[in-house]
């Protein structure tokens, strides 16, 4: 009898231990680009209880530090999902100058892949994560358990590809040509049948024809002019003018499209349906390439936040129903977080402005021509770095370091420029703190420029045009992180943590060992 009771107690204890240690079946990563984190407080009363409030109030919150200068969509996604700095994972920007090939290389563009989608054109180039030089969370999950499923969705391809990593089952992004969802031959020979069916019913044209007005005004469709807090944007007219579905990216409907596909994908691919942990990386945005067009407290920005909140509420409700509350984990954080624009800052009489790298480089070229003679001394540049013509410098018998120093001395004189550092300094010295350290963490000897600089907090880079992405970045390297669901204890982190700490935290939640490549510490 004692043996029976002892055996029974062992079984009960074992069952209780297993239940208490049950790991998350699904991790849903939500990264929102161009979000102003202070909106969560500014528009708190407009939020639903089941959306952003649910994640913020019921989960764990942390202040996270990317710990590098120039946060940018794609770069930040790579950092989040590899747990490494740009200096290590290799994605130092939207694009960089490839010195070996003598041309600009975009972070996910590929000559070896073609697009999968409605436009079945064999010659249409597509994207791949080949430039990513680090093990991502999805790849590590696949190494540990081949039955795990990894998917990512974004309106923009680079965000989808870099958050999914090299081993994703598939990454999906929005086609500006067709208004449908596409992918790359890197992941397979064709789109899943369920997605082809979904593309037949996607609501792009419905959103285009609907136009954009505030949620409160949708019941009064006669409003056609902006007056006070009322606004209306004729998306159909914009699409006719520009002949592209890109116009939808600059509306809150972009997030609804991502959410609709996510819901369909979770059901069709049965994410979180078994004990093999899965990952779904979702990427939302706040007006994408037009996020600078409105002041921080504009009615349009408020409406974007309200609609994003409703989309997250709908997503969480579906996850509760399909996967089951307590079986999944969600994290929410931000990429290329919105800064206050000069228009915002002038309202409080701050010295502010837009720094034009285009005018600065034009003057720099003239200056180098006067000092060193005629020649194409600059081969490429973006808003934070200058690439020098090293072949010409070597041909003229000059010291690269001396030219870098002269360029740095010239750039620091421009109004708005706070600090200039040369590649030589970043390569031959270690900076323990300050802006120099942030720049060093984003520096790659192979991919970064010869001279790097950053602006004062109140200054912003001028863009060549509103749709420019190569010259766009944010100086906000500290952002909130919200964790909610299985394996998370509610509360607030006591101090600033590193963004590289998120990956080992997610591994713990999913019951995975921490990758040896990770340099972070679980939260």
Quote the CATH topology of the largest domain: Alkaline Phosphatase, subunit A
Detail the poorly predicted runs.
Answer: 1-20, 223-228
Please write the CATH class name of the largest domain: Alpha Beta
So, CATH architecture of the largest domain? 3-Layer(aba) Sandwich
Instruction: Report the C-alpha radius of gyration, rounded.
Output: 24 Å
Give the CA-based shape: globular
- What share of residues is helical? 25-40%
CATH superfamily label of the largest domain = Alkaline Phosphatase, subunit A
How many distinct beta strands? 22
Could you tell me the mean pLDDT?
A: 91
User: How many separate domains make up the residues?
Assistant: 2
* SS element count, helices: 19
Beta-strand share of residues: 15-25%
Largest sheet, strands/sense/barrel: 12 strands, mixed
Distance between the amino and carboxyl termini = 46 Å
Tell me the structural class. alpha/beta
Descriptive notes:
With 523 residues, the protein is α/β, with parallel strands linked by helices. The chain has two domains: 24-339 and 475-509, 3-Layer(aba) Sandwich (Alkaline Phosphatase, subunit A); 353-461, Gyrase A, domain 2 (2-Layer Sandwich), CATH 3.30.1360.150. The protein is 35% helix and 20% strand. The chain has 19 helices and 22 strands. The strands form five sheets. Strands 1, 2, 5, 6, 7, 8, 9, 12, 13, 20, 21 and 22 form a twelve-stranded mixed beta sheet that branches. Helix 4 runs parallel beside helix 7 (157-164) and helix 11 (253-268) packs parallel to helix 12. Residues 1-20 and 223-228 have low confidence and may be disordered.
């Amino acid at each position: 009898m004692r043996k029976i009771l002892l055996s029974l107690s062992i079984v009960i204890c074992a069952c209780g231990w297993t239940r208490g240690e049950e790991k998350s079946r699904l991790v849903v990563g939500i990264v929102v680009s161009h979000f102003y984190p202070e909106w969560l407080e500014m528009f708190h009363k407009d939020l639903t209880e089941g959306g952003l409030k649910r994640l913020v109030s019921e989960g764990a919150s942390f202040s996270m530090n990317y710990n590098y200068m120039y946060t940018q969509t794609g770069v930040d996604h790579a950092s989040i999902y590899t747990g490494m700095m740009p200096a290590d994972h290799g994605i130092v920007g939207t694009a960089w100058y490839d010195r070996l090939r003598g041309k600009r290389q975009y972070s996910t563009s590929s000559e070896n892949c073609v697009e999968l989608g409605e436009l079945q054109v064999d010659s249409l180039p597509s994207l791949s994560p080949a430039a990513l030089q680090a093990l991502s969370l999805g790849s590590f999950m696949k190494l540990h358990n081949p039955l795990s499923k990894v998917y990512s969705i974004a309106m923009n391809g680079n965000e989808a590809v870099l958050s999914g990593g090299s081993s994703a089952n598939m990454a999906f992004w929005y086609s500006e040509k067709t208004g449908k969802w596409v992918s790359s031959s890197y992941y397979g020979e064709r789109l899943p049948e369920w997605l082809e069916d979904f593309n037949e019913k996607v609501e792009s044209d419905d959103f285009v024809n609907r136009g954009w007005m505030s949620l409160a005004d949708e019941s009064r469709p006669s409003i056609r002019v902006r007056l006070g807090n009322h606004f209306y944007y004729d998306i159909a007219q914009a699409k006719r003018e520009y002949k592209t579905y890109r116009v939808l990216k600059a509306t809150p409907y972009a997030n609804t499209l991502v959410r609709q596909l996510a819901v369909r994908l979770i059901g069709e691919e049965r994410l979180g349906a078994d004990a093999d942990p899965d990952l779904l990386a979702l990427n939302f945005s706040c007006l994408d390439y037009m996020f600078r067009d409105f002041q921080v407290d504009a009615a349009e920005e408020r409406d974007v936040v309200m609609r994003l909140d409703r989309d997250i509420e709908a997503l969480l409700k579906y996850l509760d129903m399909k996967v089951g509350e307590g079986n999944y984990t969600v994290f929410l954080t931000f990429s290329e977080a919105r800064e206050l624009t000069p228009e915002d800052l002038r309202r409080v009489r701050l010295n502010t402005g837009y720094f034009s790298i285009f005018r600065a480089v034009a003057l720099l070229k003239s200056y180098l021509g006067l000092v060193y003679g005629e020649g194409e001394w600059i081969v490429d540049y973006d808003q934070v770095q200058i690439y020098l013509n090293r072949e010409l410098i070597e041909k003229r018998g000059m010291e690269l370091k001396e030219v870098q120093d002269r360029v740095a001395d010239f750039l620091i004189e421009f109004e708005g420029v706070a600090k200039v550092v040369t590649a030589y300094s970043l390569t031959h010295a270690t900076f323990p703190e300050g802006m120099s350290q942030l720049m060093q963490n984003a520096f790659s000897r192979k991919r970064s420029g010869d001279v790097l600089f950053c602006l004062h907090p109140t200054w912003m880079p001028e863009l060549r045009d509103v749709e420019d992405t190569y010259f766009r970045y944010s100086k906000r390297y500290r952002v909130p992180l919200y964790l909610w669901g299985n394996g998370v204890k509610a509360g607030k982190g006591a101090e600033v943590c590193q963004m590289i700490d998120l990956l080992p935290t997610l591994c713990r939640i999913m019951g995975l060992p921490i990758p040896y490549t990770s340099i972070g510490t679980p939260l």
